[in-house]
Amino acid sequence: MESRVTRRTCLTPAQRAHVLALPSEPRELVRFYTFTPSELTPIRTHTRRHLPVEDAKALLTALESDSRKSDLQRARNVAMAYLMLKTGLRTIEVSRARIEHLQELVSGEKWRLWVHGKGRASADELVQVLKEVYDKIQAYLALREGPLQGSDPLFATTACYDRSGNVVTKNGEPYSLAGKRLSTRAIHHIITEGLLLAGVKKPGIVVHSLRHSTPTFALLNDANPTRVQKMMRHQYYATTEIYVEEVQRLLEGAEDAVTQI
What we know:
By secondary structure, the chain is mainly alpha-helical. The chain has helices at residues 13-20, 26-32, 37-44, 53-64, 71-87, 91-96, 131-141, 184-198, 209-220, 225-232, 237-252, and strands spanning 102-106, 110-115, 125-130, 169-170, 173-174.
């Protein structure tokens, strides 16, 4: 016979009934599930900021010129960050990307990357990859030990070497295996390290700021908001509208007219 564990609570039965009870009046019932505009304000306000364009460029430069990394690691890190900035991919989507997900769309001009998004069972969404990003990815893949398979991760781990160039081992085995899928934790570490090296790690600037930057840059260049929604794979337009309002604030602010001081 199946036994059940009784949940312990500090509430009396009367208190518990009061907490779980729905409002009895229809007007209050509607109020129970809705928000006023003022209540939505903190929900719609970003606590994480986008990267200014010059800071985004500084990040890419720092990753590409990090002398502590191998050629393979530098090529991987800059290709990964460039892809994230240009397409708005989340870290989990970068981690799940496979070589076979990158397919040609327009010969020599555009490619598509099938995306295995959060909460999705498979790679059933896509983003467009332009030539400049594709070239970075191919330069990285050319440095990887082959032959590569389509099922291999697009961005992979590398072996860990000591200062003498020897593979670091633990209990006789390599400490870090090359060719495995990068974890989201590893991606966070790589990008955060790049932000610090570039000197652009500030309050509100985090790894997810790369994703925030993509729609901001697109809208600043007059991209259609509906196309931006599709690119970012926002389920609701209200999410995209947050970026539209933010960009309007950047463009329409009157601060530049204050020239007396």
